[in-house]
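Re-running the complex after MR caught last week's input typo. The corrected sequence lines follow. Everything else is unchanged.
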Amino acid sequence: MVELLSLFLNSVFAGNILLAYFLGMCSFVAVSKNIETAVGLGFAVIFVLTVTTPINWLIFHGLLAPGALAWAGLPDVDLSFLKLIIFISVIAAMVQAIEMIIDRFSAALYAGLGIFLPLIAVNCAILGGSLFMVERNMTFIESVVFGFGAGVGWMLAIVAMAAARIKLRYADLPSGLEGFAITMIVTGLMAMAFMLFSGITM
Amino acid sequence: MKLTRTKAFKTFAGPAWYENPINMQMLGICSALAVTVQLKTAFVMTLAMTFVVSMSNLIISLLRNVIPGNIRIIVELAVIASLVILADEFLRAYYFEISKLLSVFVGLIITNCIILGRAEGFALSNPPHLAFIDGLGNGVGYGSVLMSVALIRELFGSGSIFGYTVVPERLYAAGYEDMGLMLLAPAAFIIIGLMAWLQKYLVNSRK
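Corrected-run output:
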């Protein structure tokens, strides 16, 4: 239990998927102009990560890992090279499903997220979550906790960034620094602050 | 006709400098930063990325008249993912050490916005040779940012270039120290922010 809690805290803070591993930057820069859309996209990312990481765990350990097909009488088959293409298909299918659900229940959120919802499919954070899950040999429970924690960490970062950018609107910046450049520098300072959490151990 | 006036050159130079995918269009930053602690990994990543983006542009441009409009994203993703698997398996077979260092980031080329963006925005509406050149230009534009960030981080962070120590012993003896922050994530964000500022300033002042 303690290990799971510490895995969760680590994936939210010190090992934040955005600030420490740079994943999901594209939509982070594009959507952090407005707090409401940032919160909406944040929830969508939490949801997609929490669902796809365990599903991909099941697929990887049930079908793709070396020796996983032993139940079918093929103990020597290693399909792990297919993981990239299988993972991205699962993610694309889940994003499509979530898009239909949001369209049905919240027209305002659907309009706000606009073209960024399909972009979740190519959000590096989602595929990165699944690939880290394989890379770090997680158990099934760990993959659920990690998926959820990584999503929460991503949302925390994008909402904080959206809040900072509202203040930045009134800043008088030199030519060329506004927009992308200052966003990256502020992100750097934020990443430094998040690194301070790495001292916390359970 | 001068070389710089040809359409092919413009297709190449646009993404390589004026519409640089990272600094000007803010695409593909995800993978750009994580592999920049050392020049070696940044260089291999650039090669892998250039291969994938130019080949995917070429293939999608060749197929552009036979891909049905409403399933084109799936087709594009399938082409890109297959190319990334090729690159990943190649690195694993021949350069295992580097492929360990790059860990998940080769796989993440699939979700690099540059590739899908170029496939959608350029390859679907242009002939194969231009699409291929556009891919090369994007690879070079992406790579140049990657390599510059990596150069700064490796030089100041570990005092070396491509793994060879360049900061002389005497400097260390005189009290010079490597800057530990350069090896950590925040430095990458700040360097890329400053570089984007410089490039935007240069491009704007030309106009």
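None of the earlier attempt is carried over here. Chain B touches chain A through 45 residues (CB under 8 Å). DSSP finds nine helices and two strands in chain B.
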